[in-house]
């Protein structure tokens, strides 16, 4: 059943790595995903899209170059 | 980035973005609070470079102030940034706004309704004046009862926020709404709350999920 204003497809952007190590306070908050989305994903108006990796070039659209090695060196 | 690109281009009606780490505490040359890179601002700048959009309105309902996003968009008049946190602030041009979340311990009524009232007052009218090309909802569930930013909220508040944001997007930018996951640590809350929020985006009825309380 479809209600509301939505017209077209709702995209869910996800990568399996998010469920293995997502949000570092606990690391497992998305442990149940993508399985928890199974019923949604049967609907023709919902699509699962895998997130591509971000390049350094993209990161530098917002951040100073020096931030990247700092993040990579962070133990978290 | 991919979500914003595809929603801005009209290839998708709207989108929900899971994340591997947070984004809104990452500024130009600092990061912290379990955020590494500012995904939302990177996505805006990439979409602008591709001529997909210019003006973006952001509502941040994570429990904590979006200091990184604020740092990156403070001088950008084409970003409306409304952050529901612990402060009250409005920039001179009205495009950068912090509003204090209601203190659940000082309330006599429902924390859900009080929180939704704050957002109803803070966001839709500003978005209407701002006329964005796309709206971003930075959706933290850390404010849910029992999570680390507990503001006494139940699932009803988040579904109400989803409806409010859908309505704003429908009115202001052809429904172009991108929901980006923010804070929140509990697997049980994520499992119970996120699917019905996505269901609202898709316009799918999921009545069994509407009564969650933790």
Detailed description of the structure:
The complex is a heterodimer of chains A (76) and B (214). By secondary structure, chain A is of the alpha+beta class. Helix content of chain A is 25%, strand content 13%. Chain A has a two-stranded parallel sheet with strand order 1-2. The radius of gyration of chain A is 17 Å and the shape is flat. In chain B, 37% of the residues lie in helices and 16% in strands. Chain B has 214 residues and is an alpha/beta fold. In chain B, helix 1 packs across helix 2, helix 4 runs parallel beside helix 6 (155-173) and helix 6 runs parallel beside helix 7 (187-202). Chain B is globular. Strand 1 of chain A pairs parallel with strand 1 (14-17) of chain B, so a sheet runs across the interface.
Radius of gyration computed on alpha carbons of chain B: 16 Å
pLDDT < 50 stretches of chain A: 1-6
Structural class of chain A: alpha+beta
| Quaternary assembly | heterodimer
Number of helices of chain B: 7
The H-and-E topology of chain A, N to C, reads as: EHHEHH
Largest sheet of chain A: 2 strands, parallel
The greatest interface here is:
A-B, 53 and 55 residues
Strand order of the largest sheet of chain B: 1-7-6-2-3-5-4
Structural descriptors:
heterodimer; A: 76 residues; alpha+beta; B: 214 residues; alpha/beta; 7-stranded mixed beta sheet; 37% helix; globular; disordered C terminus
Task: Report a brief summary of the structure.
With 76 residues, chain A is an alpha+beta fold. Chain A is 25% helix and 13% strand.
Secondary structure blueprint with pairings:
The complex is a heterodimer of chains A (about 80) and B (about 210).
Chain A: E1 10-14, H1 17-20, H2 38-41, E2 46-50, H3 56-59, H4 67-73
Parallel strand pairs in A: 1-2
Chain B: H1 2-8, E1 14-17, H2 39-49, E2 56-60, H3 67-73, E3 79-85, E4 89-90, E5 96-100, H4 111-122, H5 124-130, E6 134-139, H6 155-173, E7 177-181, H7 187-202
Helix pairs in contact in B: 1-2, 4-6, 6-7
């Amino acid at each position: 059943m479809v209600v509301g204003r939505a017209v077209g497809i709702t995209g869910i952007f996800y990568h399996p790595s998010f469920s293995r190590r997502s949000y570092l306070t606990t690391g497992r908050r998305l442990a149940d995903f993508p399985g928890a989305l199974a019923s949604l994903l049967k609907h023709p108006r919902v699509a699962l899209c895998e997130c591509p990796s971000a390049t350094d070039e993209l990161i530098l659209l917002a951040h100073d170059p020096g931030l990247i090695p700092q993040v990579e060196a962070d133990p978290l | 980035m991919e979500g914003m690109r595809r929603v801005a281009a009209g290839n998708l009606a709207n989108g929900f973005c899971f994340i591997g780490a947070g984004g809104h505490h990452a500024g130009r040359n600092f990061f912290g609070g379990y955020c590494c890179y500012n995904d939302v601002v990177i996505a805006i700048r990439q979409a602008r470079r591709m001529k997909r959009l210019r003006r973006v309105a952001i509502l941040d309902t994570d429990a904590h102030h979006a200091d990184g996003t604020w740092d990156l968009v403070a001088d950008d008049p084409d970003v409306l940034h409304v952050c529901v946190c612990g402060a009250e602030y409005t920039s001179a041009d009205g495009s950068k706004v912090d509003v204090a979340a209601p203190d659940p311990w000082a309330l006599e009524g429902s924390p859900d309704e009080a929180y939704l009232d704050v957002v109803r007052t803070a966001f839709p009218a500003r978005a209407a004046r701002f006329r964005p090309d796309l709206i971003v909802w930075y959706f933290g569930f850390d404010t849910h009862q029992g999570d680390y930013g507990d503001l006494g909220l139940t699932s009803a508040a988040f579904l109400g926020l989803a409806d409010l944001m859908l309505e704003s997007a429908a009115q202001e930018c052809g429904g172009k709404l991108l929901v980006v996951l923010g804070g929140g640590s509990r697997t049980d809350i994520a499992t119970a709350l996120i699917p019905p929020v996505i269901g609202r985006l898709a316009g799918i009825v999921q009545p069994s999920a509407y009564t969650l309380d933790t």
